[in-house]
Amino acid sequence: MRPAFKVCAAALCAALVAAVPAFAGCNSAPYVTSISKTGRDGQNEVYTITYSDGSTSTINVPAADGTAYADGLYEKYIEETGEDISYSEFLEKFLTLNTDDTSKVTNLCLLSSMKIYTQFVESYEVGGFFNPQIYYDYAIYTGGAVIYSMDEGAGGYTYIVTNYHVTYDSKAVPQLNNGSKLPVKIYGYLYGSEGAPAAVRDENGNVTADENGYTAYAGGEYAIDLEYVGGSIDNDIAVLRAKTADIKAVNEDACEVTIADEYHVGETAIAIGNPDDGGISVTRGVISTVNEDILLDIDGDNNYTAYRSVRIDTALYQGNSGGGLFNCEGELIGITNAGSGQEENINYAVPLEVVTGVANNIIYYANDGDESTVDGYDVAFGFTSSTSGSRYVYDVELGYGEVMENITVEEVSAGSLAEQMGLKSGDVLKAIVVNGKQTDLLRSYDISDMSFTLRPDDEIAFVVEREGEQLTLTAHTLSFEDLSPID
Predict the structure, then answer these.
(1) How many other CB atoms sit within 10 Å of the CB of residue 470?
(2) pTM of the prediction?
(3) Domain ranges (residues) in the chain
(4) Which strand (E) or helix (H) includes residue 313?
């Protein structure tokens, strides 16, 4: 069955320069992390409960035997079940706080959030049909971003992740725009130290020109100069960087995001971005589905490309693109990038596996000491596959489930890496082994997600089911020749 694709709009936000047309419940509640005696109130002992979101509450426990109620429950549980479980595991499993207050973790996420402005040279036509004249000037667009990784050593860099479409302008004039459609300048602002690039004016209030004759802009007191590192239009992820010292000079508490281990349908989805260029702000909803195919036209030529996305009902607006999507524990679960354009509560984010896979890939090759490597690279295996038997498998103990499917090899290209590794038509892919660690392949996109993480000298092998027998195929050590540029 062919997948259904929804045509969506990338939320790039409005240009700021005059005359430039505009572009357009928590499933994992905070849990108890500790209970400690902190005082006494008459005949009662006072215990302070600390939760995973940093909040606290107190309870009074009769001091008859000096044992906290939770301690007694834990001992009784071990006695009756014989289960080998630690006290902290017991607290997390059975004592949860029923609240949807995410204000504390959201405020922490603000330390890892940025808004950015990207500047390009565009052409403009004035004078009407009978006397058209072309002139050139800067256009400035805005979006969100997250502080992805931070090296606090001397001379270290901070890497920042946003959407590729925030750093790409299909209307830019390459010959006047440093030979590409990427920004000639990128400004970054931290939450609480916000600003925006503004036209420079002389003492008479007149707008001044820069060395190219275009409107001169200045970022202001809090602007951080950002450098484009690399990006992938096919995955809508771009990586920027700045000197960590420049980030810390604005706010010494700025920090990198915490990456989630997983995410599931129904979890809280908190978006932080720069909607309508009104400043960094927050909206909240839930994850509606963890996998939906949508169509986006990023290059502006009606070349719609399919993107795997996480659907959310979190409100997004123009300018949210590139901002972080966080769970109720303040962990990054995606990068917001699109809306349906028709349904208010149907919006999308780049999935976490794509964000981390592509971002880490780009950062790796930016620091590999080889100036000939640009952007990122993944593995070209050289086989096609089909899926069948899709099913939802629910885990009662965990309280959530996953969709699983059978991935069957259809065709293996002659001379390809897949052929060298022993794959054959009809093989059902079960897992991939990388440097001795096996990862199950549950969905077809797991293969491409894993491909982003592979590097030269990694040893890889496929585990397949062939004619009813499970086999681990021939291991192969990757070379750079096995890789292809990420578009």
Answers:
(1) 11
(2) 0.82
(3) 1-24+101-372, 32-99, 376-485
(4) none
